[in-house]
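Changelog note: in this version the structure field was regenerated for every chain. One regenerated record is shown below for reference.
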Amino acid sequence: MGQAIVGLITVGVMIYGLVDCWRSDEREVRGLPRPLWFLVILVPLVGGIAWLVYGAPKAPGAAGRGPRVLAPDDDPDFLRSLEQQTREQRRAEREERRRQAKEQRREEKEQRREEKERRDTGDTSTPD
């Protein structure tokens, strides 16, 4: 019974290794060229394990495999764009406050001018 289990595991590892090697991109295979890996995998149990450890392409999350995907709050470009948006929004708010203050000063100046004209002309009636 134990030999049957070891035999099934050996055949399973070989089949998995052959299929994985066949489906792997030539550029992603590590160590040896892909045709040589087919021969190595045919060595019972050792060949399949060697493929998994030394030849199979690295998993997508493994280090050294392509650019690392960053979360938005870790992405420097995203953070820079947020900072720029914040600066633009603050600048627009400052300009709006300045415009409103200028408009208010203009209105106050106009009111003082009108009051002065009324005093100079002797008009004591209140404006509407």
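Spot check on this record: Residues 21 and 34 are 7 Å apart (CA to CA). The first helix runs from residue 2 to 23.
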